[in-house]
Amino acid sequence: MANVLAAFLNLIPTSPLLVGQVVAIDGSSVRIELPDGTLCSARGLAAVGTSVYFRAGGVIESDAPTLPFVEIEV
Asked: Within 13 Å, how many C-alpha atoms sit on residue 27's CB side?
């Protein structure tokens, strides 16, 4: 019988999928601003002003829909 905890942990990605808006492009490196104002870098192709899904310190996964940001404090 396989270890259930190990099988569950294998389902969780090691690098979270983030969303942000492209603010600058330098060749294949893209600067992305997260909703909280943090700047990140990723590799890939995107236009300035578009929203993208990306992995932290990695690559752009795909375009993201442009939706309003709502922060809820709990």
From this structure: 2
Q: pTM for this structure?
A: 0.74
* DSSP string of 18-74, one letter each residue: EEEEEEEEETTEEEEE-TTS-EEEEES---TT-EEEEETTSBEEEE-----------
Token code pair at residue 37: 């104002």
For the chain, report the end-to-end CA distance as a whole number of angstroms.
40
CB 53 within 8 A of CB 19: yes
The number of residues making up the chain comes to: 74
Confidence band of 48 (pLDDT split at 50, 70, 90): very high
Q: How far is CA 3 from the centre of its chain?
A: 31
pLDDT at 1: 53
Asked if 65 and 50 count as a contact pair (C-beta separation under 8 A), the reply is no
